[in-house]
């Protein structure tokens, strides 16, 4: 039974992390930062502590390690100090490597630590008889602090990214720390009631998905959706597209009339959204927001809505290329950057030009066993294993 439970945990791990990847953001620069943590007496057999470290570059991990300490620590401060020693050595090595490849570090490398005692010991704040026995080989940390190669800063345990390198954590905490360290779904292509998203230079091409409800595109991703943009789910149908970080989302369905209760298009950080459909008839609300040099272009014959809300702020641009734009209520912010060339002359004369989409191979879409909507995922487990995964208690 123990072996079966262990096997279930392994399969659960593989199932839930199959799309997880490390995402590096070039906009964040190449300044190195590190996180150091320890689980005091974490090994129940010999009471050795566990050291964990995480070195971050461009907003994501480049070095990470979890090891048992070679000696038994007599206090949590000692355990944290020994872990900090390993982290400092790794930082010094990484600084030299970055210098060799042309990314020399400016100033000290910040190491985040959640133990005030270890930080005080490293900074040599006063004499403490209880720590006199610590081997001198660990005290080179002080030398590196004085030489301004590393700098220690306090980080509360909740936000200590190296925490999951030292012990098992709850699913909620683990997901939060993974999100903070940019270890997230590197490529997510679920359809149905989920999202189509991509990171980095990946491209997702979806033909006739028939069930896209939300699209979340980040970090230079290109998401292309053609035909069958949305399955209307009664009067509560909603479509939301969010693009950020120089990414682009193209909805190319010029022969499709979209009728949803709410249509939301949000573009930030130089992102681009191009929405090309035959007609837009949101029964309740149409929201568009473009900020930070981003651009939203809507190409449609008619746009009708009871509520039209347009926000073009911080060099953001919104262009609606439609012969007819009707709205019972309008709220337009940043009118200089809002263009409706064919419908309303006072809102500018700059037209929206449709992009030429490159030819791609469509993603394979299979029928969901529980609904008529499609999704991109062919790695199904058998029913018995699914039940075991759902029934097992998560650590």
TrEMBL record:
Residues 364-395 are annotated as: Disordered. Transmembrane segments: none annotated. Residues 379-395 have a biased composition (Acidic residues). This is Reverse transcriptase Ty1/copia-type domain-containing protein.
